[in-house]
Specification:
The chain is of the alpha+beta class. The protein has two helices and six strands, in the order H-H-E-E-E-E-E-E. The radius of gyration is 16 Å and the shape is elongated.
């Protein structure tokens, strides 16, 4: 859910959007997390939407045993759903600055294939 693009915006609302703990209320930490540079301003967060996160398996070059791979790595994507779909880009960091690269990765009840730019080119269901 995106932060409002105008009106009142407080540090707690930013914290909730970023999924940070209630004890972490630092504007500098929030700005750094999403890749904003100093000086820090709450207004930088107008309209900001945190990237979707999911837990998947590490990327591998082939599909052998992909449906039994442990999902133990957090990835982020630029799509709007809970899990990535074709044309979404997969990232290894919250700020979405480093794409995950190419390969197959277990996701939910299936797996995805990404190209060298981290863009999902196909999705599959594990049966």
């Amino acid at each position: 859910m995106a932060l409002p693009s105008s009106g009142q915006l407080g540090i707690n609302r930013i914290r909730i959007e970023l999924g940070a703990s209630a004890t972490n209320q630092s504007l500098r930490a929030f700005s750094s997390t999403v890749g904003f540079s100093s000086p820090d301003k709450i207004t930088d967060f107008y309209g900001y939407t945190a990237p979707e996160a999911y837990v998947g398996s590490t990327f591998q070059s082939g599909t052998k045993f992909i449906c039994t791979q442990a999902r133990n790595t957090t990835f982020y994507h630029d799509g709007t759903g809970t899990f990535p779909v074709v044309s979404d880009t997969i990232y290894t960091d919250f700020a979405k600055t480093t794409n995950a690269g190419s390969g197959y990765s277990r996701v939910n009840v299936g797996y995805i294939l990404t190209n060298s730019s981290g863009v999902v080119t196909n999705t599959f269901i594990c049966i």
